[in-house]
Design brief:
The protein is built from 14 helices and twelve strands. By secondary structure, the chain is α/β, with parallel strands linked by helices. The protein has a six-stranded parallel β-sheet. Strands 9-8-7-10-11-12 form a six-stranded parallel β-sheet. Helix 2 runs parallel beside helix 3 and helix 10 packs across helix 13.
Amino acid sequence: MIKRYFLQQYMQEQYVHGGVTNVDAEKLLLAEGIESIFFPCHDSFSLRAKFTRLIFLVKKSREIKKGSVVFFLFPLYATMEKLFLRVLLKRKVTLVCYIVDIDGIKDGDEKLLEKEVHFFQRLKYFIVLNAAMDKWLKERVPGAVTSAINFHSFLTRPVYRERVKSFQIVFAGNLAKSPFLEQLHLLNKQSPLLHFNLYGPDPSGPMMDQANVTYHGVEKPYELPEKLVGSFGLVWEGTSIEKPESSIGHYIQYITHHKLSLYIISGLPVIISVTAGTAPLVEKYKIGLTIHNLYELEAKIKSVTEEEYLQMQANMRPLAEKASKGEFLADAVAEIMGKL
């Protein structure tokens, strides 16, 4: 039997927004019977702590036998953990890289992206977020062997409260990274029925000082699905309400947002940019609407009948069950293990 490990980076941390994605991923790997590798003194940068981690690296790399499998989440930031993976590669240990983020694309940093791609090219096995990321990766790493999660796991209880169609739209996340929210007032004249309910840390003054916006503060992530007020959940990025602009707006093409699973678990039909990597999934499972810009929102919502809205909610329930139990990642792990 193949011995399986994962490099623990996040499970010990507390998050109030999308970082919970990584925590849940590592919890699920542990639940799958995959053994954790956790470097000691992870939050200390003293010489003693660095020496302790080096000793751990040497001992653990000798313990892991050739032919074993080690999963890890990417990006990987700690220098010692990067060194550890290089040692394992030399020892013919199979590495499986679960790509959660690609910072070079997200931050518009070409030099960083070049380094990230160079790192990927040293590997063979990957868990990716969706078909768009899969295509992007294989264009740069020919021969990459992959499986995709499509939807993030979110280990909390689904909300099956029946919602009523309205023009109340939810946006949840790290608000400081969503500057387009400062422009929502520009929709008032054309779309007077729209109202946005914002959840998350670090809203700017201009975000909150808009007649069509209500800020609801920060909730504990696993309690948030019960707290969301509205009829639709918005997935959008960048600096503009006209299209997803800037590097983070471009990045929407490749990622699966944690907020997508949040909305699914909350029973909120999704409104998402047509350029998003997960837009085909929203259309495939009939769980929401796709838009080119936020000026389309009111007309799009008007076009949805009450029956169609209720059907979107019903279509989300099987996905909510799978996300809440971690089955998307578990299936991806099983698939990649079958390809080794």
